[in-house]
Amino acid sequence: MDEAEQISRLIGDVYDAALDPASWPKALEKTCRFVEGMASIAWSQDSALPIDEFRMTRFYQEWAQPQGYLDAISAMVDRSATGCAAVAVTRHECDGLVDDAMRRRMQLLAPHFRRAVAIGKVIDTTRVEAATLADALDGLAAGMFLVDPGGRIVHSNARGHAILAEANVLKGHGGRLSATDLQADKTLADAFTTSDGGDVALGTRGIAVPLTARDGGRWVAHVLPLTSGARRQAGVCYAAVAAVFVRKATLDLHPPLETLSDIYQLTPAELRVLMAIVEIGGVPEVAPALGISETTVKTHLRRLFEKTGTKRQADLVKLVAAFMSPLGA
Asked: How far is 206 from 133, CA to CA, in rounded Å?
């Protein structure tokens, strides 16, 4: 193997080590052979130590010198106000001091070591940012899932894992996100597929899907497309095409519901019926829960349809879900 091919392969090993720190020993071993030294090390220290002082240390006198280490050549690969990092190749006493040929070969490699270290630092920063984002998502009260066009789960937060473990409203069999309610499951699957077409296909605010749990509880899933028009124009493929936020419907009158009441001029009685429809179910279930007759519930429902421009109870659920969305303005 000629020198050009050797250095080409060695440079590749150096960059591989930037991505996988466990590969540094292999890269350093090849560096040692290429530069024609006895040993090679990479290290970082908080402050520079003059060579004369170093040779007076116990480390040199009791470890390096007894092994015949005579000289070394090093290249600075990173420096900051408080420390530095370098790569070095030692020279055995039988080979003599560092010569011009050794320096030339080390000069060929030094820039690539510097770039590899820089790449590694960027990757470490990205990992920290990713971990911070994961912690933030785990803090959400709603279950959050990132899914691909087929509904396969790319990532989920802590609450999402808990929801899947309960298997009451959602399942994760085979790594695919699905609803226990067959009709809702079909709607979700269609939304995931549509999300692959970008925010134009599904809408920038996504859609709300009513879910009915095995125990009869009412839940809502908000599906938000991630493949925006700008990202698609960049020609880059992404594993996740949609974010899904899932939470249980509630009768609590949160501020968004007060806004809904103001917009559609709902009376307190109409708002109570509306939220009961969302959380409990149809007229036969809502009437005894609210302590009123079915006829009264139907009267309030008719007025709700008129004021909101909806025609079905499912439409009312979607309307409330839009106001309760953690993604809405």
From this structure: 22
Domains of the chain in sequence order: 3-135 (3.30.450), 142-248 (3.30.450), 250-329 (1.10.10.10)
| φ, ψ of residue 254 in degrees (nearest 5) | -75, 160
pTM, entire model: 0.43
Tens of pLDDT, residue by residue over 115-170, are 888 877 776 666 666 666 666 666 667 888 989 889 999 888 888 999 999 999 99
* Dist CA 238 CA 149 (whole Å): 10
